[in-house]
Known about the structure:
This protein is an alpha/beta fold and 153 residues long. Helix content is 31%, strand content 23%.
Amino acid sequence: MIYIILDTLDDGICWIVSCTKKKIWDVDKDAPKHVPAYNAYKGSTFLKWLLFVKDKESKGEYIDWYIFSSKYGIIKPYKEIENYDMHFINNADQAISEDELIEKIKKLSQKNYKDFYFIGSDEYYMKLKDIFKKEKIDLWWCEIVYEINIQPI
Length: 153
């Protein structure tokens, strides 16, 4: 595992953040049927990632990132999704297929990223890493080590 202190960004990195079991529909029974993916996932690691993204965007920095979802595959954060409860490995027959993931990875590789980083569980990482390897692409696993320094007004 790589521990990255997320305080500066390199251009050319594609970040892939795992979906989470806990979703907006678990915490807000009145949530709409469809929401942007970035608003759907409520697990702690995902929420830490969002804090990082929002902090960087507030400073005018852009992060190219995607979400890995067992149901939807590798998607942009603003893609509208609905509630689901599916595990990429335990529900393999219902989850996104490996062939569909390979197609998405091929498209991502055409964007000239120099590195691909994954944030999420080791189980999901190992599965995705094997698929990336089939396309001769390295996928690095990292963990969020990030704090926002909030100054009093």
